[in-house]
Amino acid sequence: MKVGIKHMMDFPLTLRSMLERGEKLFPKKEIVSRTLSGIHRYTYADYGQRTRRLSSALQTLGVKSGDRVGTFAWNNHRHLEAYFAVPCMGAVLHTVNIRLSAEHISYIINHAGDKVLLVDEDLVPLIENVKDQLGSVKAYIVMSDQKELPPTSLSPAYSYEELLQQGDPLYAYPEDLDENSPMGMCYTSATTGNPKGVVYSHRGIFLHSLCIGLADTLGLSERDSCLPVVPMFHANAWGLPFGAVWYGTKLVLPGPGPTPEVLLGLIEQEKVTLAAGVPTVWLALLKSMEAGDRDTSSIRAAVCGGAAAPRDMIKTFETKYNIPFLHAYGMTETAPVALVSRLKSYQEAWDTDEILDVRAKQGLLVPGLEMKVMGEKGEVQWDGQEMGELLLRGPWIADSYYNDERSQTTFSDGWLHTGDVATVDGEGFVKLVDRMKDLIKSGGEWISSVDLENALMAHPAVFEASVIGVPHPTWQERPVACVVLKEAHAGKVGEQDLRDFLADKFAKWWIPDRVVFMDKIPKTSVGKFLKRAMREMLKDTFA
Amino acid sequence: MKVGIKHMMDFPLTLRSMLERGEKLFPKKEIVSRTLSGIHRYTYADYGQRTRRLSSALQTLGVKSGDRVGTFAWNNHRHLEAYFAVPCMGAVLHTVNIRLSAEHISYIINHAGDKVLLVDEDLVPLIENVKDQLGSVKAYIVMSDQKELPPTSLSPAYSYEELLQQGDPLYAYPEDLDENSPMGMCYTSATTGNPKGVVYSHRGIFLHSLCIGLADTLGLSERDSCLPVVPMFHANAWGLPFGAVWYGTKLVLPGPGPTPEVLLGLIEQEKVTLAAGVPTVWLALLKSMEAGDRDTSSIRAAVCGGAAAPRDMIKTFETKYNIPFLHAYGMTETAPVALVSRLKSYQEAWDTDEILDVRAKQGLLVPGLEMKVMGEKGEVQWDGQEMGELLLRGPWIADSYYNDERSQTTFSDGWLHTGDVATVDGEGFVKLVDRMKDLIKSGGEWISSVDLENALMAHPAVFEASVIGVPHPTWQERPVACVVLKEAHAGKVGEQDLRDFLADKFAKWWIPDRVVFMDKIPKTSVGKFLKRAMREMLKDTFA
């Protein structure tokens, strides 16, 4: 039998098919959107028509196949319309992160070459601020609850609602779009330099959307009321909007600057079953829940990603509030879901502490992707101890950064090198232990800076601690700890005290050779330790 | 941005990736297999190694990429090994239906050109019976619990267990297999003539396996204990073995000729959560359940397809046994799952009768496929009334029959013409009402023979009834009913009595013009009405 020819229907995996199922099978299901003027509700039938109107209007404005259309918006129904209107017509949805610096905003809009920019009314000033730097934008569309265009210095500027009124609600999407065509873009921050662009294909998002509907991952379903707190400009809001439209899931979009109070109100009123956000969102929600008597009983899954969720927080959600906590892992480069920490059936019989240990890990590889964790000597043992860099591959993993020379170090040999250092336990659960660049390489072995930091910060006298690798003539690198003591303890705790404190917790060769006491540790603008600066500062310690 | 080039990783969707996830992440999970010598248990770790041994042994026997390897087997662990061993090495798994006539068995083995045939020990006589007609088979492998080859006239014949012992448990599968490559074949019976072959691609089965893992379809999951009663030679056992290996689902394979008692025993012992079979299997199970005190409380989904399940049976499962009943629809040509009758969330608030009406329909289109229902005047209204032929397309739908001139009528304009006549209700649920060839076309309108038959069979005097369309000079066709009366009523009920009985149930123009009383209705070998013969017999009724 011939190989290399198609043996079933040559049916492209595109967003059109997803949209049309949602429209046709679930016309009565609701999309709830919090806007500047209140709660807006409509159905998937309305959504389908307005989405088609938007595509038609964009076509009238000159948007063609492959053109980039940027969005600068909160999680709301208009943003959701763009999520399908732009890709289904063959154009490319570029979701611009509204929290970037002015410099980075103009960089990525220019780098992507956005032809049209859709801007939420209250975010218009941020774009006005950089408009003189924008070279590619031919039209600005202001998304407002009012039909009239608000006053703006953007030009040419159009009213979203006016354009939609002129658009065709029956606009027909092409059925022969190549599934490998680009459907979207999102930029991810780099340690240094400008953000890097990731391109998503129709095929990738189609498959990712199937993945998050699996009973074994997030189980996104028609039965859910889904609240994506994670922004739609951040890795596709973890793909939830795409899946929700396909499955006819009720969507609850929390709109501009949602506070914990707003979110808890939506959870109660809309009987949210699945909410998704970063750990700081869940921490803030938890604080509000602890303060008042709120009804969160509808939640069947608290999905958390973007950073490691603290074990104690997971415990509170699970044991005090009976909210199942789903830890997940992904990156902009992975569309993003790659790991989900769902218990295996037989782990449910484990005791609470063991279960929480599992839940605090980043999780199991989802169906559709492949991984390996590469240490100094090849693939690591699955013993929960040996460290290696997490490598991923699969149909919803990017294969390069868009027009960017930095692609080569991240994408090589067919794998995405995540830059995350991980261990894998005997059950296959991945746990992140460090970033590759912060890992300390001593005598051919790896030492996790994060583990040492966490241990040091558990010392009663330590306010904060950061551990870095410093060049060493014999061992390549040796760990050095930078420590800020609590005011009351300043000068009363010495280097040897802290080394002794660590002695029974780690192998001897893990113990930092030096502890440097500081008044404060240099940090990035988002509050992370600026390890690069510390390494520079201490580079001659062992010279 | 360029369209038509790949914008994410060029990662092929193949069974290798599915197998490797199952092996690596769920090495402790169990596969239970009923064989001639009892219950056999092993883990996915064992399964992976034996599967690789099988591929290695087949390679030694000369099996190459694209070669067909036939199986002639019950649902057991060796058959499951072949399910992945054959496709992962690039060869094509041809599951031969053991229930076919000798003539059809030899036809399809020759037509597929099977190079190797794997045969269950107790089924060897059926193959010995046709061996002189088999032209392509170069090796027979007998699957037995014993290592020694049982006496057989097949030649050359090998012992499965002996071959496996010589095989390589670390056999590495190619990573660059084209996803469009053929991975399997299954033949489907034709109304007349020889069976028609359907070819499955890796891509198609990969996507179908994702589909049945969705929370909104079957929700197949690691948590399940899955009992496929539907044979593995029948449309891939509805894809359950493929999904189960990927997700690490406990599989319970019921082996040779499973009786209701055997099945209920397995359900109790292995705490089966999802079982799948045709309506006759569920009817037989129900009979046994009614007779004794059996524990079926572990079942979360009774999946039923292959033919329409009677509403009363669904009701008994749902209301008396509290077993959620999942009606599904598909064909060999659709890999097979295309529709699943899962309630929408808001339908759960409907009353029991309305819910049963929904459950008795074939269901909602699954994510990934597209459908249209084409009546005389184009797409039908979704009113539960207008009839049309169900057309399907999507990535796991066949695009032709293998080397068969009959492809053209079934596959045209990019759609599979299922030959099934359906209505669609306002919620998008499809209900089959007839076969296209049995539909009666009268004056440009369609009449369902099945609806009339069901109504007639509800008459207390009627033993059985079949309704056919007979050529008519004015109306193109008119319905004629063929009726067998119960013995006690013979001669006491006339044509007009039955026409009157139908009068308040259908529009006037649906009422059969003639009722022909018969001693018996001609039937096919599997007990279906032989309407072709009746149409021939009565063709001059209105001449």
Present the secondary structure layout.
The structure is a homodimer of 543-residue chains.
Chain A: H1 15-25, E1 30-35, E2 38-43, H2 44-60, E3 68-72, H3 77-88, E4 92-95, H4 102-112, E5 116-120, H5 124-128, E6 139-143, E7 157-159, H6 160-166, E8 182-188, E9 196-201, H7 202-212, E10 225-228, H8 240-247, E11 250-253, H9 260-269, E12 274-277, H10 279-291, E13 301-304, H11 311-320, E14 325-330, E15 337-340, H12 352-359, E16 364-365, E17 370-375, E18 378-379, E19 388-393, H13 407-410, E20 411-412, E21 415-424, E22 430-435, E23 440-442, E24 445-447, H14 449-457, E25 462-472, E26 476-485, H15 495-503, E27 514-517, H16 531-537
Parallel strand pairs in A: 1-11, 3-4, 3-5, 4-8, 5-6, 6-7, 10-11, 10-12, 12-13, 13-14, 26-27
Antiparallel strand pairs in A: 1-2, 8-9, 14-15, 15-16, 17-18, 17-19, 19-21, 20-21, 21-22, 23-24, 25-26
Helix pairs in contact in A: 1-2, 1-8, 2-3, 2-6, 7-8, 9-10
Give a verbal description of the structure.
2 copies of one chain form a homodimer. The longest helix of chain A is centred in the N-terminal third of the chain and has 17 residues, at 44-60. The mean pLDDT of chain A is 95. Among the domains of chain A are: 15-212, ANL, N-terminal domain (Rossmann fold, 3-Layer(aba) Sandwich), CATH 3.40.50; 367-435, Luciferase, Domain 3 (Luciferase, domain 3, Roll), CATH 2.30.38.10; 440-537, GMP Synthetase, Chain A, domain 3. Chain A is globular and about 75 Å long. Chain A is an alpha/beta fold and 543 residues long. The termini of chain A are far apart. Chain A contains 16 helices and 27 strands. In chain A, α2 (44-60) packs across α3 (77-88). In chain A, the strands form 5 sheets. A 9-stranded mixed β-sheet of chain A has the order 2-1-11-10-12-13-14-15-16. The first copy, chain A, has a 7-stranded mixed β-sheet with strand order 7-6-5-3-4-8-9, sandwiched between helices. Chains A and B meet through α1, β9, α7 and β16 of A and α1, β9, α7 and β16 of B.
